[in-house]
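# nightly structure sweep
# worker-07 picked up a monomer target from the shared queue
# config: single-sequence mode, recycle default, output format = structure tokens
# input follows
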Amino acid sequence: MDYPSSALWSGQSPSPEKSSQILIREYPHRAIAIASPTHALILRHSTSTSEAIANGSLSSVASARPRSSFDTGTPKCMVEFSPNTSSLLADYRPLTPRPIYGTLGLISIGRDVFLCVITQASRVATVRPGETVERIDGVQFFCLNSADYDDVVALDPYEVESDATSVYGQSLGRRDVAIEHPCLELQRLLGNGSFYYSTDFDVTNRMQDRPADANTFDINNFDESFLWNSYMIQPLVEFRSRLQKQERHALDASRILTSAIRGFCRSWAIPQSSAPLRSQHTGLPSYLTIISRLSCRRAGTRFNSRGIDDDGNVANFVETETTYWSPSGVVFSYAQVRGSVPVFWEQAAGLLPNQQKITITRSADGTQPAFDKHFAELEQAYGAVHVVNLLSATKPGELELTSHYRYGIQHCPLSRPAGDLSRDHALLRDTEYDFHAETKGPQGYEAANQIRRYIESSADGFAYYLAQESDDVPEPKGRSPSPQSRRYIVVLQQEGVFRTNCLDCLDRTNLIQTIISQMAVEAFLGHRGETAASDFWSRHSSLWADNGDSLSKIYAGTGALKSSFTRHGKMSLAGAIADVRKSATRLYYNNFADKARQNTIDTLLGRLVGQTPVILFDPISDYVAGELQRRSSEFSTTEKIRIWVGTFNLNGRTEGIDEDLSPWLCPAELGHIQPEIVAVGFQEIVELNPQQIMNSDPTRKQLWERAIKRTLDHHYSRQGDDKYILLRSGQLVGAALCIFVRSSVLHHIKNVEGSVKKTGLSGMAGNKGAVAIRLDYANTPICFVTAHLAAGFTNYDERNKDYATIDRGLRFQRNRGISDHDSVIWFGDFNYRIGLGLEMAKELVRRRDLERLYENDQLNLQMVAGLAFRFYSEARITFMPTYKYDVGTDNYDSSEKARIPAWTDRILRKGTNLRQLSYNSAPLRFSDHRPVYGTFECMVSIVNEKLRDKISREVYERRKGEVGGDTANLAGDESEDEDLIGYDAIEPGLPPASSDRQKWWLENGKMARSSIMPPKPESSAYKTIPNPKRPSNPYAPTEEPDWVNIPRSESRLSSFSSMSTSPYEHVNHSMLLSSSASSSAPRKLPPPYDPSSLPAKIGRMQIGEDNVPAQLDGPPPPPPPRRQTGLSNGPPSTTTTQISRKPPGKTAPTSLPPVSPASSSSQPAPKPKGPPPVAKKPAHLAAPASPASSASGSVELRTTPQKDTTKAQVPQLPRRSTASLHSSVSNHGGAPAERDESPPQLPRRIASNPSVTRMGRAHPPGAVGLVGLGEKKNQLPAQKAAFVSQKPPAPPAPRRSQAVVDLLDDETGANIGGWEALKPS
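# output follows
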């Protein structure tokens, strides 16, 4: 922006001591450093951490868990602040040759993280010596995690010089296709000349709220309502708060962190000859400054941001401060505010000037809590408030706003004076001043000065801020005191504020605020017996004209109207022509550019749905986040609320307005329970004729709103019942939605928004479509949608498309959609019909056969098919079809069209916290539809923010004391990000998982110790040690004891006590004892690895592989635990797989010969080495094989462990098979069964007839299915199939009788009716 009339230091950059240098290091990790002369702030993106979060391997980090469906991984960065040394930045190079003047913060766009720095700035104001303000003229976004955008620059034709162009220009020329920088729009917004910052003082607070001394301020005291980079700078501010005091002061002194405001700031240097206050000691000029701070709480463009929100924030809220500093040691300040009319209203952009319709979106009663909150905050910040309302009394829209404004002031507690005092002594007063009517006469805008007589009493009472330099400061000899040595004493404080508004708070408001500012300066000078010359007032008017232009460009896109009069004191012809041109330009911006500007603003402020802030890594903060999540029950509670929802197609009739609506609004199911929320949806509230489908007439809606409120208040009139308040309503031609809430719960409700979506005539007409209202009840977002979908018996595809259009296209502010809510309730005339003929449908209705009717309901069929309302639920329908009736009767349509009865009016829900209590229709007969209602119980979450913050601080301090506050050195690559982050405990009560840096068993550096004592040995000649033969997996089933006794060193047995330390080597102690104790037998190497000896191979199982049968003795081992699928870490075991048939009528099964993969002798016979394992397809993907034939009877799978006579074996756990399996089952004669190479069947539930397969083929009795042999964790029931080997079985060997090991044996085994689904390994 250019301000030629008031440019004081045009193009002057900030002083060098206020600049820093930005550096980059590419290897081993990409890192960016901001270096001041004394310190450096180093930032590195945690790449591996983000990827781990995305793929779930770091899901134990509580603070990194996704918060919404959009949040796939919170971007994390590591940060270090260290003294600047040559070794620290040895590997870094400059990223841009020019200095930078501050850091605005970090922002994530997609998966990329960008650092925003100020690359161009110019000094525009000096409030007083030592307090300067700079304007941001250019910013640059540097990516922390990628070099893709290093050579992407914004080619701005109006930009004379670009930092990035000089560095990256050559690379840009080699690109085939130019890549647009993701932050291009943000870069343009921040560099458009409307943002300001100061590194000398807190520019977010007015002078009265800052320390009187010039250059002492604390970042923690910034007013976030005016801090526009609050979202981006917050991670760095939080990091700063965790530093030690000395480091924190060093970071502040480095001027790296920057606070930016938006609005206007400019100074005029008043020479001594024109200064109203003159100093005899110095020839320094005086400084007249105006600073306007635009609030970011409800930021937005003209037609996208209007009125108030539930937190009391209003659109276009600006605090404007006029300051004057004199070398005589006097500082004057006066603040006033402007803001949109504090009621809930909206205005749509249009192509005709002054024809944009104003819509009040909430009743006066529903507005009052937010209205009171707004003025309570004003009163707390500024004192008494005097409202100056400049709206027209003749324009209907502005008159309606004025009436709501007046109602709010009358009912606001601040407007009631204490005791018997008059309204002039109230904290809230108002003046209605019709600006256009007052300035219509021959005097023109000069007549606006008449407002002085309406507000002069308040102006005198509000006073102004005045501080004077103390006289007790000793002056150095020969020179004046430095700004740092000055000490100011506050003499007077401003005790009230004028709040001025018109419709846009731009043109009329700026002119009146100029007059109020002049009144304050005149009062200040008058109290000192001074007056100001015309030259001084000319500069004052020019500053205010520039202020109006700047604020108008931000909000409306052009400079302010009437600025010619503000600047020169008269309206010229050129000024009138300029106003016409500005009005036309505003129409273009408001209709075609403002939506994109609004989206950029929301991105900057971090208000888009799914937008996640950057997390600066701090292991203590991660721990605190996890603790808060685990202790959420301490500061959050749940509460059950009741919601009544109703829908009614009125068929354009108004006869029922005066009828008793209580059978519908207050059904018997509720009893005397008063719902917290009442949501009423109407369709065809007006007749849908061609004249109506393009416009919405609110008259009918308002009539029904009054009828509903009258019914509710009449029914709930007992003592203790609350009155209902209309929270918000919306209308789309014939569809209307009204939300009423109990007055006692209004304080729980925030962020109420409304939206509509047209679907008629391809989205051009509003005869069909939806109206939605969303709100936050405490911490639970709830959305209500009423819809009127396409009509026609066979048009269910069109209705499905209407639903999809509404679900995807209906959007609230900040890109929030319907699905972005915990609870969603759809209700309305969905127009889905019953797919039966007229006679059949009426016959079923006559028989009240609702089940048969529902089977043919189109909505039911479309939902089952997943074509509409996916993931929504509907309660059981127990009422008759609600369409179509003869009006005034209970008879279905008897006209010529003969509509088929149908449930067109429905209520659907989605949300785990919703429980439907009732679903019914009401007997209201004045329409051809019957109204439908449902009652819900909703579980809402309420968080005590103060208690949460208190617990957070306590946990942080405790954790910091436990682990210390050292930060990781980011300069090297000796550590992994996961080691720095650490892990949380997987279960409550367990220690956190260890990493290379932190081991839970060492307890903060203490030596490891064990509290387990070994048992006493059998005799003194032995000592007890852990059993080396026990498998390494402590949970594997084994018969080995935990401890064994070995001879002591002085014992005769000590010569060989160390030989049997391997679980794979068996040492016969008795054999050794028979020989000389001094000599030991040579050690025998274990047999070479033979994959064929394993019990379960990759791809097949061998049965009867060895010629020598195993010797069986000893009881069987206990079965492995259920769900155990992995192999034991201990020695491989040897098992025998037996298959026995149970012929009918026999109890003792006939078993197949046992099989042992290993010989029973101590010296195994040499076997050919099997092929190495080969990766193959999992069993469920391999080519299937059909089961082989077998004799009649069911088949059992038995496992019999083989026990070596010289060595105890650990039974092998079942393992998964990863390739196709083959089977061979012998019949009673011992002949092998035929093999079938067809693919194995997938696991499925067994039919009652075991001989019938999945494909309908009849297998012989006892056929075996070959599915997932190695996958089986449990023994199969008798009627299930078993797996056998493709080799013929060996002859049976004598064995001991053993009990069958039932791997499915548990308390629920008897109820298992089929296969358990097996997951691939």
